[in-house]
Structure formats: structure tokens, C-alpha cells
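Worked Example 4.2. Consider the chain below.
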Amino acid sequence: MAVPKFFEFFEGFLRAVADGELHTAKEVREWLASDMRLSENDCSEMLPSGKQSTFHNRVAWARTYLDRAGLIETPSRGKYRITDDGRTALASGEEINLKYLEKSEKFREFRKTITPDAPSLADEEKDESPMEMLDTAFQQITAALASQLMDEVMKLSPTEFEKLVVSLLLHMGYGSGITEAGMITQQSNDGGIDGIIKEDQLGFSSIYIQAKQWAADQTVGKPEIQKFVGALQGQQAQKGLFITTAKFSSGALQYANNLLGTKVVLVDGFTLTRLMIKHNVGVSVEHVYEMKKVDSDFFSEEL
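Applying the procedure from the previous section yields the following C-alpha cells:
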């Protein structure tokens, strides 16, 4: 089943601590996973950023909202228990949702600090936690940037595209500290090789590159990869990178994965733009947001 929305954990969280004893976050998560019949796969599903599980994130935000509404309290580090208001909420028989939490003035004030201009949560319940909304927005911005970046890449001449590929590899750390670490080959006599990156300073190992600037909706098939492997063998090379603005057929991917003695890595247009964004090639940083959390170790020490 899908991981419940963060506000759908409110009532379960209260029931998990309803005995009035102190409970750790781990204990609450285990109780919720069992009570809501969440599988191991459900609990290990990751946020789009891949930095935290969706389950952990949503339970953590449920805890934050319940705490700000005064339904639970945290008398000691990392341990929670229900309050009198929490017991009242459970006994009321009402659905414990965002609308219920907005009865608390303390919660309404808290919410203004994170979304000051937003309409009442009683009007519309968001499916995502604040972290998930930020994560989703970041993914959308990245996707739009990647699309714009590909438009610019497709405007390059073939030679400029090959230079871009070599530049990207250098930015990724290949050939670090080596004089003339990367080069593109002469168009008239490239032998199927568009560029070369030196991996070590003495020149014992090199990566040979084939760069195909094809339309995004085109597909690079197995024959193209076979020709590239033939070019590598002609150079007595064991490492090759085939990079394209298009995509690869399943046959091409399978062929590259099953090669013996020669290692060929395939990079499609989607991966190319993401690598350019990650390594700041053709893009510049516009805004930086730091996401911080409470340092529990700091507060556990004597001040």
C-alpha cells in the first residue's frame, strides 16, 4: 500500500503514546507500521531527493504538528508522550486532521511561521509534508532547467558538443591534475573516436569517447554501439564512453552490459543534463537554501 499522508498519522501517533508513558521515535514508527500494516517496502520508499524515507519524513512531520498543537509533548530528548489535550482529542471521536489541529491557537501561530500567506488548512489538506513539497518543487525546477539546458546543447556545432563532453568529464574529476588531460580528435581522422580523457598522470589509462548529438526523440541502437566497440578495439582501448543527447534502445543497453574485456558506459540525454547540472557545466547557482534541523547531541551535553 502507499505510505499514508503525514496528517493521516496524527491519530495513530496519539494512540501509539496513549498509555501516557515516554516513547521514542523508533517505538512510535514501529507501532504505526504494524498498526497500519505497512510493509518493509512501504517503509523504505524514499523521497524524490533520495535522502530520507517517506515514512520517516511523514511521521516526523506528524510529530511536529501534534507537538505544536499541544496534543503531545517532548519532556526529554527524543521521547514523546500524550498530553491531556491529546487524550481529549482521542476521546472526542472526531477525526484528528489538520482542521482539528487548527482549533489550537498555538498551532495557528506556528503555521503562520512556515506559510504566512497560505489559506486556512481547514480549507484544504495538502497531501505532502512541507519537506516533500520543497522536494517536489526542487525536482520540478531541475526538470525545467534540464529541458532548457538541452535546448542550448542542441544549438552547439558537433565540434562544440564534443568539447562540451570533454569539459564535463574534466569537471567530474577525470584527468584531475594532468596536463592536457582531455582532447577531441581531428574530424577527418577520428576513427570513430571523438575525444580522449587521460585517467592517470603517466598516461597508462585513457577513456575514449564517442559523442552523438541526436534529437531527443531518436534512439541509438545496438549497431552504433557495436561500431564504437570496433573503434575501441582498433585503438586497443578497454574503456569507452558513448554519450548522446538522445536515448538508447534496450538492445544497445544489454549489449554494453554484457561486453567482456571492454567496458563501455552509455550516457543518454537525460543523464547528460543531470550531470551538467550537478557539476555546474553550462549552469550557474542562483539561490542556495540550507535545510537545518535541531542538533540533539548539542542539547544532550551539559551547557
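The chain is about 45% helix and 15% strand. The mean pLDDT is 84. Compare this with Example 4.1 before moving on.
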